[in-house]
Specification:
64% helix; Arc Repressor Mutant, subunit A; globular; mainly alpha; three-stranded antiparallel sheet; 2 domains; Four Helix Bundle (Hemerythrin (Met), subunit A)
Length: 247
Amino acid sequence: MSSLSQLEPRHVKSSSNTQDDVVYEYIFDAILEQRLAPGTKLSEEALGEIFGVSRTIIRRALLRLSHEQVVSIRPNRGAVVASPSVDEARQIFAARRVVELAVIELAVKNITPQSLARIRAMVQAEQDAFDRGDIGSGIRLSGEFHLELANIANNMPLLNFQRSVVSQTSLIIAQYEVGHQAQCSCNEHEALLLAIESGDPARAMAMMKKHLDHIEDKLNLDNESASTDLHVVFSDVVKKQPPTRRD
C-alpha cells in the first residue's frame, strides 16, 4: 500500500493540497496519458488500497472527476472511466474549438518571455518523450501544453473548462484514433508557439483551428464500428464474386 504523503503527482503544486486533490490529480494524469482506457471500472476499494486512504476520499475524488465528465458514476454499480459516444465526441470537439480559440487569443495578449520559455520547454519535453518511446508521457505533455495556454490566458473559468475538454479529448483519442500518431502534435505545437510569439491573435487562432482539425481528422467518427462477422467484413468481396456450385 502506498503512503499518500510520499506521492507527488505532476499537477499538484502545493503541500496544502488535500488527500482528495492528490488522488484526483493521479487519476486525471492516468486519463491524460491514456493509461486508463475508456470503460475501465474504478473500484473504490482497490483505489483506496492503492493510495492508502478511505473510500470516502476516493469517492470525493471520483465525484470531482465526474463533474468534469471524464468519469461516469453509475447508481449501485460504481464509477468507470467515461466512454464518449460518437455524437458526444463530436460535441466535445465542437466545445473544445470554442474554448481553445478563446484561450489562445487571450494567451497571445498575456504572454510574457517567462511564460513563453515555459511552454517552449514543455514542447521540447513532449518531443523528447516521443523520441525515447515514452508515448504516455508524450500524450500527457501534449495535454499539459494546452492547459498551460489556458493558465497563461489568466481566466479561471476557461482553465477549468479546458481541463475537462482536454481530458475528455484524451479519452476520445484512446477510443477512436486510427493509427495512433499522437506524436504528430509536436510540430504543430511548435507552429503554435511561433504564432503566439508573433503577437498576432488571428494567426494563432487560425493555427489552433488547423491543429484541432488535424486531431479530429485522425479519428474514426463515421459510426461504422469493426465487426467480428466475416460475412459483414468481406461483404464487398461476396458481392463481386459470381455464384459458385457447391458439390
